[in-house]
Amino acid sequence: MSSLPAEDRPQPKSLTDLFVSFTLLALQGFGGVLAIVQRELVEKKRWMTREEFIEDWAVAQIMPGPNVVNLSLMVGGRYFGLKGAMVALAGMLTVPLVLVLLLAVVYAQFAGHPGVAGALRGMGAVAAGLIAATGLKLSGALKKNVLGPRLCAGLGVLCFVAIALLRIPLAYVLLTLGVLSCVLAYRRLKP
Length: 191
Fold this sequence. Notes:
Blueprint: H1 15-28, H2 34-44, H3 50-62, H4 67-110, H5 114-138, H6 148-165, H7 170-189
């Protein structure tokens, strides 16, 4: 998306900008933030290219903990070192933590209401749609991937089949397909 060199691209102006940006990002992402994070960091703020986002998101997914929290640490660390990583993490967690605690109190009061259960089921469908739309939007970046779009798509299909249809645990699928894709990428990059 952005062909500007890294030093010419926009970046957070300060630690406060980083904190506020990740706080606002976190407040937009109830139930799943992939689509929102991609839109904010790549399209709006242009702190990352699509390719950088895909690479960092892949690393964030294989690390323990929530993906977006891992990504916030990486982005904050990229621009401001350890201090930036901690500020981005604080932005990602502080206000949402307070809101979630308040929502937990409210949910405890109304959990048995049929309308609440129906609303939660509807939100699940919306979250699945957001993930699918973001995947389609980011698929264009696979043209520049060392494995090429076909092999990447094949690995994606294998992952889907293994997890959704064969019900193989995610850890085994990530370990197997992750190692396989790393070996294939290494072989193609090797001079």
